[in-house]
Predict the structure.
Amino acid sequence: MADAILTSSGIYQIRNKSNGKVYIGSSIKIEQRWGEHRRSLAAGTHGNEHLKSAWRKYGADSFSFSVIEYVPDILMLIGREQYWIDALNASGHNGYNISPTAASPLGIKHSEQSRRNMALAQTGRKHSNETR
């Protein structure tokens, strides 16, 4: 039962237990997305500089991952994510979401370090013949 729940689609939060700040996200496979967050945070390659800095400062044990709403209809994910970003003020001083708009990179100014990290992540990547 728990495995089925974590592979469900929905809205999740990453909460810093030390200061109460949250990151809100949505995924069609929550457990898989949490693994991606944990790996990139541990490696120091996560794209969210605020969350990455807090992870380094407070340590992994200071963060909890939890589902705040299951959303069976994946077409409603972005709208529900926006609701929770607003409701928890996750893009302001109380949160780690960089953009105030769910699933939108518009208006985000990446730091020089973030740009280097993104470029490094693409180094050596080969495009398929179809993509070329």
